[in-house]
């Protein structure tokens, strides 16, 4: 029965791939997986946090005492067909390959989600989960698949010098050292560009031979992304490496943005915004991402996981006060697991498996 189910899944995958090809006109998909709405679905979540004892406490909202359960039950419905996540199929297709998330704690959020989704799919398959400095590697030994997380909040270099910590907007040595030879790269950056005061991780911003104490953060972000995009243009062979950029993950600290003026944060939010439009409008950092990707020498090198709008609708999905158990700090930036990052990974799966990214 198991072999039959696996064969059936593969047949369905092939049929879905043909469907997407038939929906392509002049190289542009008519089917937009990122346009849709959230639907209550009793078959969700795809896993429980108890299935994965490696999930970090800050994402384990239910075990940290969050009493409501609605946030676990919403499934993203694009305005076209999207297959349900099949972790075993994912691992078989990725056999012998390496997948690396590169970015900040939102990348960590997505990496933890994917490792748990895959582990839930093959619970008896042995794995190792190792951390070496800023690199974490989760290996599914039976499939020889490595799913890695490299902490790199700015993508460009952050260097300790005699004058202090310097963000170098036009230097990206970490790419030459860590990213080459990886089969699938998923990048993310934005939230650390916003930090100031004691949380600001740099003392100077450097561009060329000029140093600044500060500059407009969106401007700095765009300059850094252009350096990253140039690195991809020069170094990525699309026949060997597939590159994704995770769209900007929104926070929810101002209820005016979703039409609830009295809401000062995401606390006590239990359901998504209804419909498919977010009254707060486009995220300015996401517009920067889209512009930089359009202006690349080869824009087709990078697939944008355009998760911003669908995540804006999920004001209910953050840990709020349930991110650290006994600590009551407000967290409207990260996401509970199970939760919204599972959908990001369903979209990653669809892109890798069904849209000529395999």
Summed up, what is this model?
Residues 30-79 form the Trichome birefringence-like N-terminal domain. With 358 residues, the chain is an alpha/beta fold.
List the helices and strands and how they pair.
Elements: H1 2-22, E1 24-25, E2 28-29, E3 36-40, E4 74-78, H2 87-93, E5 98-103, H3 105-121, E6 127-132, E7 135-140, E8 145-151, E9 157-161, E10 164-168, H4 173-179, E11 184-187, E12 204-207, E13 210-212, H5 217-235, E14 242-246, H6 284-294, E15 302-305, H7 308-312, H8 340-354
Parallel strand pairs: 5-8, 5-11, 10-12, 11-14, 14-15
Antiparallel strand pairs: 1-2, 3-4, 6-7, 7-8, 9-10, 12-13
Helix pairs in contact: 2-3, 3-8, 5-6
What does this structure look like?
Mean pLDDT is 90; it is low at 12-29. With 358 residues, the chain is of the alpha/beta class. Helix 6 links the parallel strand 14 and strand 15 (302-305). The strands form 4 sheets. A 7-stranded mixed β-sheet has the order 6-7-8-5-11-14-15, with helices on one face. A 4-stranded mixed β-sheet has the order 9-10-12-13, with no helix packed on it. It has a two-stranded antiparallel sheet with strand order 1-2. 28% of the residues lie in helices and 19% in strands. The protein is built from 8 helices and 15 strands. It is globular. It has helices at 2-22, 87-93, 105-121, 173-179, 217-235, 284-294, 308-312, 340-354, and strands spanning 24-25, 28-29, 36-40, 74-78, 98-103, 127-132, 135-140, 145-151, 157-161, 164-168, 184-187, 204-207, 210-212, 242-246, 302-305. It is found in: Membrane.
């Amino acid at each position: 029965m198991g072999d039959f189910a696996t064969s059936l899944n593969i047949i369905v995958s092939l049929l879905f791939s043909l469907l997407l090809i038939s929906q392509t006109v002049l190289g542009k998909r008519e089917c937009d997986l990122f346009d849709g709405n959230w639907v209550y679905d009793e078959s969700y979540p795809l896993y429980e946090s108890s299935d994965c004892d490696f999930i970090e406490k800050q994402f384990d909202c239910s075990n940290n005492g969050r009493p409501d359960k609605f946030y676990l039950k919403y499934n993203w419905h694009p305005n076209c067909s999207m297959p349900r996540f099949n972790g075993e199929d994912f691992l078989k297709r990725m056999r012998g390959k390496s997948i690396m998330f590169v970015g900040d704690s939102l990348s960590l959020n997505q990496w933890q989600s994917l490792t748990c989704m895959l582990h839930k799919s093959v619970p008896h398959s042995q794995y190792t989960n190792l951390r070496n400095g800023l690199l974490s590697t989760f290996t599914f030994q039976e499939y020889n698949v490595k799913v890695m997380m490299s902490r790199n909040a700015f993508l460009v270099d952050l260097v300790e010098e005699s004058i202090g910590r310097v963000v170098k907007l036009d230097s990206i040595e970490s790419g030459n050292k860590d990213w080459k030879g990886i089969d699938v790269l998923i990048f993310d950056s934005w939230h650390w560009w916003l930090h100031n005061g004691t949380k600001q991780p740099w003392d100077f911003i450097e561009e060329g031979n000029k140093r600044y104490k500060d500059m407009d953060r969106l401007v700095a972000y765009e300059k850094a992304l252009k350096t990253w995009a140039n690195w991809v243009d020069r170094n990525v062979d699309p026949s060997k490496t597939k590159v994704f950029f995770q769209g900007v993950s929104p926070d929810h600290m101002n209820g005016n943005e979703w039409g609830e003026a009295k809401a000062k944060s995401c606390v006590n939010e239990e359901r998504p915004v209804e419909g498919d439009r977010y009254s707060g409008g486009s995220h300015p950092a996401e517009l920067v991402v889209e512009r930089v990707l359009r202006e690349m020498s080869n824009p087709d090198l990078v697939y944008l996981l355009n998760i911003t709008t669908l995540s804006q609708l999920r004001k209910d999905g953050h840990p709020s006060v349930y991110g650290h158990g006994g600590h009551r700090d407000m967290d409207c930036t990260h996401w509970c697991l199970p939760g919204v990052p599972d959908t990001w990974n369903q979209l990653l799966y669809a892109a890798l498996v069904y849209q000529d990214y395999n």
